[in-house]
Amino acid sequence: MKTSAVSPGRAGLILLLTGQMLPLIDTSITNVALDSITLSLHTSATQLALIVALYGVAFAVCLAMGSKLGDNLGRRRVFLWGVALFGIASLLCGLANSVSALLAARTLQGMGAALIVPQILATLHVTLKGTAHARAISLYGGIGGVAFIIGQMGGGWLVSADIAGLGWRNAFFINVPICLLVLVLSHRYVPETQSETRTRIDWQGTVALAMILCCLLFPLALGPELHWPWETKVALLALVPLAWWMRTNALKQQQAGFMPLLPPRLLKLHSIRFGLLIAFLFFSAWSGFMFCMALTLQAGMGMTPYQSGNSFVALGVAYFISAWYAPKLIGRYNMRTILLTGLVIQVSGLLALIATLQLSGRMVGALVLAPSTALIGYGQALIVNSFYRIGMRDITTHDAGAGSALLSTLQQATLGLGPAVLGGLFLHLVGQSQGNYS
């Protein structure tokens, strides 16, 4: 690796972590603003789910490409491209006067996030050593909890405060000055690094993955609402030839000595397959759960966006604490024990949340929800930490970069599909239930 002799220092580390927080905060802010967006743009249930899902799918599709662009062209350069694109897309989200315009801007946001995120961990790895490296990686792992809190509380306040009468639009506009600040200061404080050898980008695999995810996303999101027209069935059937095309292309590239987007030899590893199972079962359910809870608290229980955002502060705090100590626990115990412990804690939290909502009804508040949501957040961080460590267990040092990119792509893809599939189903069932009672 070709690296700068200069460490990013405290200022550079803050800028990199701020860049990491932008995509994470945006996810929370969007969930908090969903009900306000519905009232403003008159969105359907499916459109609401797609506002969240398209961001995650674009993020997943472009993630590996963003990583390789950083290796080839310079990580600081691509990081700044990503921040600029994310800022422009956030401005377009805030200015959107139709659902289609908002969906297009959200897709651009996901692409910007995919350029930002891979550069951060790579820069930390090649510019920091020893204690400074360990501390930075711990911050990188735990920043999700902090971003979640900021997104929930800050987004809820921005929407509820209705500054200048802009409502939910402020939740997107707030990204613009932050992006400008990062762009201005990063040239001075973030060192430039890049790989000594250029790596080939699998454009064909990227296009194939995008088509596969779209053929899953749109039929599963639109199907229940549109009563499964023939177009949705054709799209689902198209998954088979698309998957065959992607695999054939990947095998050809692998035989030629290149690294495809989803390397077949890595997909044969037991740890990767188990990681794939975790991603589908956990991350899709998690993103779908957060989408449904945000709507339940606001549209269903009458909370303001600020009250709804505050209801998950305990979850974010518990996540941060758990993520901070998870590496020590994994070092002391085996990963299977930590994964199962995380699952037990999170399921206990979900059961406690169901009981709390059932018993409290519309009188529920942030303090009442705190015990159950804290359990959910603590368990989630243990699962996320175990996911990457279990997934990387059988991967050699030579394939570490490809393995990490593969797992990150799977994580983001399932996070993107969750709101569209589970959230869309939830909204469809709620609509049917309301129709039955009307």
Report on the structure:
The protein has 438 residues and is mainly α. It is built from 17 helices and no strands. It is globular, with a radius of gyration of 21 Å.
Structural key phrases:
0% strand; 438 residues; mainly alpha
**Helical residue percent?**
over 70%
Derived structural class: mainly alpha
Which stretches are low in confidence, meaning pLDDT under 50 for 5 or more residues running?
Answer: 1-5
Indicate the mean pLDDT. 85
Question: Helical stretch count?
Answer: 17
Order of helices and strands: HHHHHHHHHHHHHHHHH
**How far is the first residue's CA from the last residue's CA?**
65 Å
User: Rough shape?
Assistant: globular
Per DSSP E runs of 2 or more residues, the count of β-strands stands at 0
Alpha-carbon Rg, integer:
21 Å
Largest sheet: none
Strand content: under 5%
Brief write-up:
The chain is an all-alpha fold and 438 residues long. The chain has 17 helices and no strands.
Question: What is this structure's SSE topology?
Answer:
Layout: H1 9-41, H2 45-73, H3 75-95, H4 99-127, H5 130-161, H6 170-173, H7 175-189, H8 203-226, H9 230-237, H10 239-255, H11 264-267, H12 270-300, H13 305-310, H14 313-332, H15 335-360, H16 366-391, H17 400-437
Helix pairs in contact: 1-4, 1-5, 1-7, 1-12, 2-3, 2-4, 2-8, 2-17, 3-4, 3-7, 4-5, 5-14, 8-9, 8-10, 8-17, 12-16, 12-17, 14-16, 15-16
